[in-house]
Design a protein that fits this description.
The chain is an alpha/beta fold and 131 residues long. Helices cover 33% and strands 24% of the residues.
Length: 131
């Protein structure tokens, strides 16, 4: 069953959220695992792609906002506002939430969605100096 991990970034803005998500993805890639970054729109996809143009293990990384990634991907980093319909295919799904009222409200909805379906959940509070 897919593990869901929420990272709550206190005192952070949208750009910090993207940067922290990219750090998480880099850690996954450094461990030799594959990751799919699911974004909310084409503009965000292009922005994230530019940050990963010159990384090691880029063959283990997919970035998209449209649909399902390849079948053998192990980790999902969800940067979209909604729960991706395909999240349960992954071993782990990361949700990164910045400190903005609407973003936190939407994250609570996603948390409830996962919780109501019995997925194992953890959350980590990330202090501003660690973002």
């Amino acid at each position: 069953m897919t593990r869901i991990e929420f990272y709550i970034l206190f005192g952070a803005e949208q750009s910090d959220r993207l940067a922290y998500g990219q750090r998480l993805a880099m850690q996954v890639l450094a461990r030799g695992r594959s990751v799919h970054i699911h974004t909310g729109c084409a503009r965000e996809t292009r922005s994230v792609i530019t940050h990963f143009q010159h990384v090691d293990n880029a063959d283990k990384l997919t970035i998209d906002h449209k649909g399902e990634p390849e079948a053998d991907t192990q980790v999902l980093l969800n940067l979209a506002a909604e729960v991706p319909y395909f999240f349960s295919r992954f071993e782990t799904t990361y949700e990164v939430v910045h400190d903005e009222q609407q973003a936190r409200a939407m994250a609570r909805e996603r948390y409830r969605y996962y919780q109501e379906r019995g997925y194992p959940l953890t959350h980590r509070e990330v202090q501003p100096e660690l973002v």
